[in-house]
């Protein structure tokens, strides 16, 4: 994790995004704060182009446009063909039919990291037919979780075993797994739920680290960085608005050691 943080600062890797219009700015700024480079695109040929240019791609389904019916599968396929890791954030899975279709479609080119809140991870495992234990989810309420992180454990492990990558479930305690180990990470702040895009930008930062590290290390580094920076920002702010500013400052100031020393609890999956 420390090496990933250090290498990103040294190499300034590009992790392009296809991501929602609500939080694009926060995603890009968080990617820059950790030392990465950002580029947001919408069109199918641009997705293929940036898949070739970038070290890893972030795809977030938060606010779909008709063109995404082409952009998302073509970009995921381009990543798979170029052996580039990509990060899936299945925001709002369950809203409308296109989201469902796209998540079904990209099962063919599995993401190196699937990042979402607990309800989204449970819903993806169900959609991909991966895990019978997962269908006790209550389903996302719009873009927010209604399930606990622990309720998504089996779904997260099933997705990681299927993809061969990592799954990061965010919440009060984060859970990250590669299908062999399950890691829990504490920290952050409840204020992160009052700033839209805390999760989206976590996915964007995971993509930056995936440019230089394996999926599990990248997901853990991003999660640990968020927990550290979130806790520090909460001490320095006076509410959600100043929290977001303090959070970006804290993210930019994190040392590799602070990220690597974040408390993590490992167990066998
Ligand atoms: N109660 C909490 N205490 C501490 N940290 C939290 C809490 N809730 C969420 N977080 C942190 O906030 C970040 C985003 O997680 P969250 O589950 O809110 O994502 P999300 O629902 O996908 O967000 P969004 O869709 O708005 O981007 C993670 O780093 C997570 O650890
Ligand atoms: C609020 C919201 N709506 C669609 S995407 C998004 C950002 C948080 O996921
Ligand atoms: Mg989200």
TrEMBL record:
A Pfam family of this chain: HK
Sequence positions that bind substrate: 40, 197
GO process terms (BP): thiamine biosynthetic process; thiamine diphosphate biosynthetic process
Coiled-coil regions listed in the entry: none
Superkingdom field: Bacteria
Binding site for ATP: 115, 170
Cofactor: Mg(2+)
Keyword Transmembrane applies: no
Annotated catalysed reactions: 5-(2-hydroxyethyl)-4-methylthiazole + ATP = 4-methyl-5-(2-phosphooxyethyl)-thiazole + ADP + H(+)
Record GO terms (molecular function): ATP binding; hydroxyethylthiazole kinase activity; magnesium ion binding
UniProt entry keywords in alphabetical sequence: ATP-binding, Kinase, Magnesium, Metal-binding, Nucleotide-binding, Thiamine biosynthesis, Transferase
Gene3D superfamilies: 3.40.1190.20
Annotated pathway: Cofactor biosynthesis; thiamine diphosphate biosynthesis; 4-methyl-5-(2-phosphoethyl)-thiazole from 5-(2-hydroxyethyl)-4-methylthiazole: step 1/1
UniProt-listed SUPFAM superfamilies: Ribokinase-like
The keyword Kinase is assigned to this record: yes
EC number(s) given by UniProt: 2.7.1.50
Similarity field: Belongs to the Thz kinase family.
Chain's role: Catalyzes the phosphorylation of the hydroxyl group of 4-methyl-5-beta-hydroxyethylthiazole (THZ).
Protein name in UniProt: Hydroxyethylthiazole kinase
Gene that this polypeptide is encoded by: thiM
């Amino acid at each position: 994790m420390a090496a990933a943080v250090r290498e990103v600062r040294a190499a300034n890797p590009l992790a392009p995004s296809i991501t929602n219009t609500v939080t694009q700015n926060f995603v890009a700024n968080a990617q820059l704060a950790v030392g990465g480079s950002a580029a947001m695109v919408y069109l199918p040929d641009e997705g293929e182009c940036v898949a070739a240019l970038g070290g890893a791609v972030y795809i977030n389904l938060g606010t779909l446009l008709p063109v995404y019916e082409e952009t998302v599968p073509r970009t995921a396929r381009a990543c798979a063909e170029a052996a580039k890791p990509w990060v899936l954030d299945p925001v709002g899975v369950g809203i409308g039919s296109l989201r469902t279709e796209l998540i079904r479609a990209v099962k063919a080119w599995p993401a190196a990291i699937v990042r979402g809140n607990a309800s989204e991870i449970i819903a993806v495992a169900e959609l991909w037919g991966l895990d019978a234990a997962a269908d006790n989810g209550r389903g996302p309420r719009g873009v927010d979780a209604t399930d606990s992180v622990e309720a998504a454990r089996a779904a997260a492990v099933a997705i990681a075993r299927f993809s061969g990558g990592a799954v990061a479930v965010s919440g009060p305690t984060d859970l990250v797994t590669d299908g062999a180990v399950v890691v829990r990470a504490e920290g952050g702040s409840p204020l992160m739920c009052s700033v839209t895009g805390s999760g989206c930008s976590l996915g964007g930062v995971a993509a930056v680290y995936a440019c230089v590290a394996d999926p599990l290390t990248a997901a853990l580094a991003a999660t640990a960085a968020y927990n550290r920076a979130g806790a520090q920002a909460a001490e320095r702010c006076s509410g959600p608005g100043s929290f977001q500013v303090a959070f970006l400052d804290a993210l930019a100031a994190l040392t590799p050691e602070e990220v690597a020393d974040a408390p993590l609890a490992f167990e066998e999956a």
